[in-house]
Structures are given as C-alpha cells and as structure tokens.
Specification:
Chain lengths: 106, 210
C-alpha cells in the first residue's frame, strides 16, 4: 500500500514539474515577445517616419525645382517687357527732352 | 490493483501534459497578439507623426514657392525700374547737352535775361549783383533794362551790376544781394537740381505712358 502511495505522489510531483516547466516556458515566450514587440514598434515607427521624411524632402526638392523653373520662364518675359519699354521710350525721347527743356526755361 | 494505480498515475501525467500544452499555446497566442498590437501602435504613432511631418513639408513648399515667386517678381520689378531710371537719366543728360548748345545760339540771350529777371524778382528787387560765366559776361545784356523789368514786377527800385566773380557751368545766372545774405541761383544746373524730382516724374510720364 505504501508503495502505491509513493508511486502516486511521485507521479503528482512529476505532473507539477511538467506544469511548472510549461509556466516557465510560457513566461519566457512572453518575455521574448515583449522584447520583440518593442523592437517591432520601433522598427515600424522608424520605417514609416523615414518614408515620410523622404517624401517630404522630395516634396521640397520638387517645389524648389518647379519654382526655379517658373522663375526661369518669368525673367526672360520681364526682359522682353524691358525691351518693349525701351523701344517705346526711345520713340518719345525727343518729346521728353523738348518738354523738359521747355519746363526748365519757362 | 497494480493496473488501476497505473491508470490513475498515467492520467495524472496526461492531465499535466495537457495543461502544460494549453499554458504554452496560450502564451504563444498572447505573444502573437502582443507583437501585432505593438506593431500596429508603432504604425499608428508613425502615421500621426508622418501627418505632422507632411503638413510641415507642405507648408514649407508653399513658403518656397511664395519666396521664389516674390524674389522673381522683385528682381523683374527692379530690372524694369532700373531700366526706366536709366532712360530718364538719359533724357536729363540730353537736356544738359542741349542747354550747352543753347549757350552758343542766338536764342540764349533772352533766356539768360529771363533767368536774371526771375531771380531779381524772387529777391524782391533792390540793389543786386549778377554773377555770370566768363563767356556770358561778354554778351550784350542790358542790365538796366532788366532792372527796370524787376522794378515793374516788384515795385521796388532795382539796380543790377555785374559781379566781378564768375561762375562755371551750363549757363543761366546767379543773382545776389551785395551782402551775400540772399542768393538766388538760376544757373541751369541749379534749376535742374532743384527741380530734378519733379522733372524726373514728368519725363517718366512722357516716356512710359500707355
């Protein structure tokens, strides 16, 4: 009878050990998962933010290029306008000189 | 007896193994959920920050566009303005050149006389001295006639004498009281300088009218 009890107690102890080992393994899994989760958080965040930074840099670069391109178109237009101003002014040059002389001498 | 004990102890172990398996499986599932949750949290936080980053970039883009456009307009405006200034100056230079020519023409004497009368009238007559350039001092100017004209204009008896001191320049005259207290400078240079702002405006109106 004693032998039977001993056997049952032994097996129950073994059963406890099995469950304890499982609990230790589960704790280890959760600890590892916690570490991996923090890494995953950091990695996902950094990747997404880096992508946004690249996109915003690209936006700025493109905007600058476009603006400079517009300026390159605009300035020759201004130069053309200046030529036109000069042409008209030269047509009225004598009139302006005569009128000024008259004004000074009057 | 032996057999039932064996069955009982086997059952104890089997239950323990089952429980152990459940504990590990649940831990694995929880780990997966935790991992996914954190990944999603990272994504969500990044998207919030990304939104702010992109908004800032967009506003900077607007600033860049505005700044380049403003600089371009300013540069173009400056070019136009600078050209206009050059053209106005060119007219004034031509006016000076023609005034120099005028000094050599017959039309000059009445003009010179008028500048003397205007200056004398501005000084309200009296005893006055007229300063002329070396060349103009040899011209047949009737100072007494001019003095009479000033007397008529001001109602003050006026006499004009030619000062010994000479002036340099394009022409015109400088009239002063003998005490040098008051001087009216009606040389062409002085007139041009005095009225430069107004003349530039008038010239601009002629040259650049639509």
């Amino acid at each position: 009878m004693l032998k039977v009890f001993k056997k049952v107690i032994d097996k129950e102890q073994e059963a406890h050990r099995i469950v304890r080992e499982a609990q230790v393994q589960a704790e280890k899994i959760m600890n590892e998962a916690q570490e991996k989760a923090e890494e995953a958080y950091k990695k996902t965040y950094e990747q997404t933010v880096a992508k946004a930074k690249r996109k915003s840099m690209e936006l700025r670069r493109r905007a600058k290029e476009e603006a400079e391109h517009e300026a390159e178109i605009f300035l020759p237009r201004a130069e053309k306008q200046i030529m036109e101003i000069q042409r008209k002014a030269m047509e009225r040059f004598d009139e302006a000189v005569s009128s000024t002389l008259k004004e000074v001498l009057s | 007896m032996e057999s039932s004990v064996q069955k009982f102890t086997d059952r104890i172990l089997e239950d323990a193994r089952e429980e152990a398996k459940t504990i590990v499986t649940q831990a694995e599932k929880s780990a997966e959920v935790l991992l996914e949750n954190r990944r999603q949290a990272g994504q969500q936080k990044a998207e919030e920050d990304m939104y702010a980053l992109l908004r800032r970039a967009e506003s900077e883009v607007e600033i860049i566009r505005g700044r380049v456009a403003t600089e371009t307009r300013r540069e173009a405006g400056w070019l136009v303005l600078s050209k206009k200034e050059q053209l106005v100056t060119k007219v004034l230079d031509e006016v000076k050149r023609r005034l120099e020519d005028l000094q050599k023409s017959k039309r000059y004497i009445p003009i010179l006389e008028k500048t003397i009368i205007d200056a004398g009238t501005a000084l309200e007559g009296g005893k006055l001295e007229v300063m002329l350039s070396e060349d103009d001092s040899t011209l047949p100017i009737r100072l007494d006639t001019l003095a009479k004209a000033i007397t008529e204009e001001t109602g003050v008896k006026t006499s004009l004498t030619l000062a010994k001191k000479r002036i340099k320049g394009l022409g015109g005259a400088l009239v002063k009281m003998p005490s040098d207290k008051i001087i009216v400078d009606n040389t062409f240079e002085a007139i041009l300088k005095r009225r430069e702002k107004e003349l530039r405006f008038r010239i601009s109106r002629i040259l650049f009218r639509n």
